[in-house]
Amino acid sequence: MILEIKDLHASIGDRQILKGLTLTLPIGQVAAIMGPNGSGKSTLSKVLAGHEDYTVTSGEVLMDGRNLLEMPVDDRSRAGFFLAFQYPMEIPGVSNANFLRAALQSRMPEGEQIDAVQFYQTMYKKMDLLKMDRSFTGRSVNEGFSGGEKKRNEILQMLMLEPRYAVLDETDSGLDIDALKIVSEGVNLMRSPQRGILLITHYQRLLDYIKPDVVHVLSDGRIVKTGGAELALELEERGYDWLKAA
Amino acid sequence: MSTLTIPNPISTFVPSVFLDAPPWDHAGLPGWFAASQLSAWKSFIGLAMPGRKDENWRFANVAGLQFDTFKRGAAASVPDFTGLEKVAARVVTRNDGVVSQQASAISGLEVLTLREALAKYPAELERHLATPDTGLGGTKFAALHQAQLRDAVVVKVSEKTEVADPVEIVHWLSGENASAFPRTIILAGTRSKVTVVEHHLSAGGDAGLNCGAAQIFTERGAQVSYVHLNRLNAASKSLHFSTLRCEREAAVRYAQFNLGGGYVRSEALSQVAGEGSRSDMLSVSLASADQEIDQRTRQDHLSPRGFSDLLYKNVLFNRGKTIFAGLIRVDQGAQFTDAYQKCRNLLLSDDCEANSMPGLEINADQVKCSHGSTSGRLNEEEVFYFQARGIQRQAAEHMISLGFTQEVVSRIGQDAVEALVFSAIEARFAELKG
After folding, report:
1. Is residue A125 part of a domain?
2. CB contact under 8 A, A157 and B390
3. Cβ–Cβ under 8 Å, residues B182 and B75
4. What's the confidence (pLDDT) of residue B217?
5. What is the pLDDT of residues B224-240, one digit of tens each?
6. Is there a domain that residue B423 lies in?
7. Contacts of B390 in chain A (CB under 8 A)
8. Helices (DSSP H) in chain A: which residue ranges?
């Protein structure tokens, strides 16, 4: 079981951003993608999730052998793909509970309803892990949330949906140290031999709390280096320029 | 009293079906009331039909104002109806006749018929039972309403009485080409508190005319919530006139939900009349197919330190059409006024038409006022967020649109009423989507 990204080229408008990105994420692995601004980190996450602003010009992505890029956005999610958004949307008038419930309901066979009692029990348990207040369930999705609350909400959604492959797009950005710890705990709870996790980050800071098995460096739309966790520290010290030159 | 010479009407609307009106028996009723009805009838006959160029009817399909086929509704059966579980009192009418009544058991709350109210509170009724003219264009039809009035629901709350559960009024329109002229008068005493929920329903698929009015009068510090739920069938026409008078420190919340009716015209005048009074006007309208929902409002600030806020939201499907025209008017003496007005349209099709005309007229210099109107489609980024969680597009659109209306519903402020209104909106959405 593996998520395979092969020679991926993608553009937004006239701008080519991914220029032959190749990467594999075996199930059970936690990998980090690091890279400078503009290297294509967020484009990769949007392309994987299926955002229509991005055009894949060549290459392919296989999720356990299935062609991810040919699947509609909602199918990808139900098939086990998850993206934690860098900028989660605010949805006025739709409560978090209803949103999560609809997401879980979409995974049920036709004609079957999710068990409401069990749903709330599970949700409360996971909210407790993330130190989220119960009043959160009745609030509108992300509306008026602080940056930290939004990111925590993304992690809660991940905990509830239990994807096989999760991509976390700059989940650490905008978090203070306490929120970062809570979010990291949530991610660490999700570490499992049955799950692949890809952390997209600009800073090494997140990796103090979530230890990656592998670190990839993205530069100008391609993976230019892959190494162990120590690579992140090296990047922290030396920056990205030495890799660009290479 | 039962015969009247009709002058030549200056109108294209031939009120043939009402020509024998007003035929009803005024025996035992005060002379002023009979006179008021006859004079209203003359006004109705004499006033010109609204024209296309009339500013108060801008964008409106005035050709829709054809009522020639309507007649006094004959009695017919009324379906079962489930409304609120807990009420302080309930009145059910059919074509203006009371079918059932659950009287108030609360001391200080009276829910009376017109005859009862005229007998018990003649002086107050004489003051308040006039033509419910809002000054927003529909004077002719407000006069028609007054002239045709057979009954009314008068909700009287005495001083310092706080009524916890709502008073529920259910008006059925029943039978082919039936017409009804329902009237609600709320008289809220000093520091009293009451909620009135009013349903307008069609008993079947027949065309009908619902020409109603609501008048809210407050005394110092009274708090009134009036919730109007229009769920008439698509063959029906509805005209409604509301007047709200907020006296000193009083607060009136007016909420109108248009979930039905083919042609709907609603006028609401809120007078922020007493110092420190407050008016909230709320509305959700769902317009589909060939529905036209035309709402005109005015927030009239007459005293200092008043507050008013209006939030009207429209969701438009296929060929639905809405019109919103609202004016905030601040009198010269109404210093330190806070007045807000917002109309938001969610367009769910390419063929719908949303017209918004917000307006301000400020004659005082120490005021905070804002108004605005927005129209837009569903935000694709929001839809994407739902899809990225596995939720299909159709379900996502449904949830986002319902969420759009929730902001209004959540301002009603009573859980049971909010739940009732929200489920009515949900049911209408399901109908329109299905």
Report:
1. no
2. no
3. no
4. 98
5. 999 999 999 999 999 99
6. no
7. 74, 77-78, 103, 106-107, 161
8. 41-49, 73-78, 96-105, 116-129, 147-161, 177-190, 230-238, 241-245
Q: Which residue has the higher pLDDT, B15 or B12?
A: B15
- The alpha carbon of residue A68 is apart from the nearest alpha carbon of chain B, in Å, by 13
Examine residue B7 and state whether it is found in any structural domain, yes or no. Answer: no
Inspect the interface and report whether the beta carbons of A106 and B390 lie closer than 8 Å: yes
Q: With contacts defined as CB-CB under 8 Å, which chain A residues touch B401?
A: none
Quote the minimal CA–CA distance from A77 to chain B in Å. Answer: 5
Is B207 a domain residue? yes
- For chain A, what percentages of helix, strand and coil (3-state, to nearest 5) are there? 40, 30, 30
On chain A, the residues whose CB falls within 8 A of the CB of B405 are: 93
Summarize the confidence of residues A6-25 as an average pLDDT: 96
A61: in domain: yes
Q: ipTM value of the model?
A: 0.96
Number of inter-chain CB pairs under 8 A, A vs B: 79
pLDDT score of B10 more than 50: no
Query: Domain total for chain A?
Result: 1
Domain hosting residue B54, numbered range: 16-378
Residue B323 three-state SS: strand
Rounded Cα distance, A195 and A126, in Å: 18
Decide if B391 and A106 are in contact by the 8 Å CB cutoff. yes
First to last CA, chain A: 32
Of B381, B389, B392, the CB nearest to A157: B389
Contact across the interface for B405 and A93, Cβ inside 8 Å: yes
What total of structural domains would you count in chain B? 1
How confident is the prediction for chain B on average, in pLDDT?
A: 92
Distance from CA of A89 to the nearest CA of B (A): 6
CATH code, domain with A33:
3.40.50.300
How far from chain centre, in Å, is Cα A144?
A: 22
B3 pLDDT tier (thresholds 50, 70, 90): very low
Rounded Cα distance between B116 and B106, Å, is 18
For residue A122, is it within any domain?
Answer: no
Please answer yes or no on whether A89 and B403 come within 8 Å at the CB atom. no
Residue B298 has pLDDT above 60, yes or no: yes
